[in-house]
Amino acid sequence: MQRIFQRIRPHLGLRRNVSSSNNYLIIKEENGTREITLNHEKTRNSLSLDMMSNIIKAVNLNKEDISLRAIILSANGNIFSAGHNLKELQESTGISQHKLVFSKASELMKSIIQSPVPVIAKVNGFAAAAGCQLVATCDMIICSETSKFSTPGANFGVFCSTPGIAIGRSMPKSKAMYMLLTGEPITAQEAYESGLVTKVVPTQDLDSEVNNVIEKIKHKSRSVISIGKEFYYKQMDMGLFDAYKFGEDIMVQTINSNDGQEGIRSFVEKRKAVWGHK
Fold first, then answer.
1. pLDDT value of position 16
2. Tens digits of per-residue pLDDT, 215-249?
3. Nearest Cα to 191, choosing from 145, 246, 130, 250?
4. Cα(70)–Cα(212) distance, integer angstroms
5. SS3 of 60, please?
6. Would the pLDDT of 6 be above 60?
7. Are 39 and 74 in contact (CB under 8 A)?
8. What's the chain's average pLDDT?
9. Residue 120 to residues 70, 100, 138, 197, 253: CA-CA distances in angstroms?
10. What is the rounded average pLDDT of the residues 98-107?
11. Whole-number Å distance between alpha carbons of 40 and 28
């Protein structure tokens, strides 16, 4: 398993093309975009402890390398992820194991939120339970027209409490509660209308749409995007007035950064900005 992560080294110049894989993931890195593909179809890409550990490593790998600009999270097969591997949650595995599973899941979600670059879920299939939590935690979700999303835990005697945290912060209460209380899936269009999904496109356009969004991000300063993402998630936990005060400080910090001043100069001088990503 270690070989997959040892093949990609920190590098501050142009990022070389890299492709690697193990039993759970395929990782491709090209022109500053890292795509992490869940590749364990026999378990419906379930979020076992091993799967989650591998995703965390792949997300965190060389994350401070300035040539890394975006991460795509995708999956092979028609099930993006069916959620936790229920074999790891049987009574026989013990409470300590159960706690470990959910602790690891929280670590995974935090790794996405704390990544300095945008993490985009590219969904072409069914994202269920913790799989739905995983995509809802990403900064954006771009999905195909045939994709579906569900939190079906109540059907199996396990309320989707932790998935509810992610979807409840992405969509209105009544729609989130519909998903949580009935366990019924919603379509890609319903997910879009509810605010869970960023864009819905025909399956054949999914790759190009994700790439278009990432190209727009790459034209910005990496440091500014990183500061902005960190600010967004921190202010979400603040009261309104505290968030405004925090926002004032971040605006001043960003304006006085190297790239902040370069952006202002380029506007005044009517030229394209040359970012130093600092």
1. 55
2. 999 999 999 999 999 999 999 999 999 999 999 99
3. 145
4. 12
5. helix
6. no
7. no
8. 93
9. 8, 26, 6, 11, 26
10. 98
11. 16
Nearest to 209 by CA among 217, 219, 201: 201
User: β-pairing, 70-75 with 79-81?
Assistant: unpaired
Whether the CB-CB separation of 198 and 253 falls below 8 Å is answered with: no
Query: What Å distances lie between residue 32 and 70, 203, 210, CA to CA?
Result: 7, 24, 14
* Gap between the Cα atoms of 59 and 78, Å rounded: 23
Strands (E) located in 86-210: 119-123, 126-128, 140-144, 148-150, 186-187, 199-201
Measured CA to CA, the distance from residue 170 to residue 196 in angstroms comes to 5
Percentage of residues in the chain having pLDDT higher than 70:
94
CB 25 within 8 A of CB 39: yes
Whether 120 contacts 70, CB under 8 Å: yes
Q: How much is the pLDDT for 250?
A: 97
What span, in angstroms and rounded, lies between the C-alpha atoms of 55 and 46? 12
Beta strands in the chain (DSSP E): 18-21, 25-30, 33-38, 70-75, 79-81, 119-123, 126-128, 140-144, 148-150, 186-187, 199-201
Amino acid at 78: N
Rg (C-alpha) for the chain, rounded Å, is: 19
